[in-house]
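[recover] target loaded
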């Protein structure tokens, strides 16, 4: 629980257009921790690939750059992400 609170507190201090923002966090009465985060609408990369097969290189490069800029910002703030997902 202590680790969850520490990571949630750190994540809530990181604000960048390429990162999902953590607005709040707490623990339900039964001991279940939760985060209140941005709702990101759209399609997953997996759905794009399934729908159209190969994805254009420039599309993939753009997605990667956005992700890298967000990670660079977090790293500059001393935050190391240990669970990066596509």
């Amino acid at each position: 629980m202590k680790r969850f609170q520490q990571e949630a507190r750190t994540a809530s201090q990181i604000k960048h257009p390429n990162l999902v923002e953590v607005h709040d966090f707490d623990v339900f009465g039964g001991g279940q921790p939760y985060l209140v985060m941005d709702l990101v609408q759209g399609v997953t990369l997996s759905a794009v690939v399934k729908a159209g097969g190969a994805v254009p290189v420039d599309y993939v490069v753009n997605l990667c750059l956005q992700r890298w800029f967000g990670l660079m910002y977090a790293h500059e703030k001393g935050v190391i992400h240990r669970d990066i997902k596509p």
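[recover] notes: The chain has a mean pLDDT of 88.
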